[in-house]
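Protein modeling request. Please complete all fields; requests missing the sequence field cannot be processed.
Requester role: graduate student
Desired output: 3D structure, token encoding
Chains: 1
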Amino acid sequence: MSDILVEHAGAIATVVFNRPALRNAISLAMWTEIARVTEGLAKDDSVRAIVYRGAGRDAFASGADISEFREHRKDTATSLRYNEQTGAAYRGIRECTKPTVAMIFGFCMGGAMAVAMACDLRFAAEGSKFGIPAAKLNIIYPPDSVGQLVDLVGPACAKDILFSARAVADREALAMGLIQRLLPADELETYTYEYLRRVSENAPLSVRGSKHTIQYYLEGMTDERRSRLRDLTLEAFESEDYKEGTRAFLEKRAPRFQGR
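Delivered output (260 residues):
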């Protein structure tokens, strides 16, 4: 069975890290596959939202598979290639035009934190733990992921997490803004999929535009990005979905958006 599974339920796709015996530790092959499947789901018009999760309830993922480091990160050349693969996975999730949610049971550590932070939202089960133990391995965490950590929790909390390499408990993670929902383990799956079903019923062009606008704001609103947002705004205004939304509102019924 594959170490990366892709499951579909209506308009929602789920990407599963499937190595439960190793707390879903992410191998180099899995990093490559995460980037590939994310690109495919982003292009799939039938998919309106994506969930990332680990198999079982012990871990979202315990991070990169460190047992591979002696081979795949043994020198500068192999380290650079490894970083290219992990970077492609993070970037693919971060730049995906579909709403993404990390559904987190148990441990979310190291590289898995970068995966979760690349998602738009993080919903976690009670008892989950978070950490970036890079300082225990003499690794400098990727700058884009550090930037996302700062955006989520602020510079002081980001320094605390990175300097100490400690595990952050569930309620502290919620209080600092690292996660957006904290639920009993038996309720997390139901809540996550019900939330995304509501999201998937909204206008995809509007959701995509909101995601782009927020990302551009965080990265800096250049003239090129403002032009891109104007194009997206016009595309939404000229779409069939805009007409459908207006009709549905006037007719007092739920809209049926098609993403065009």
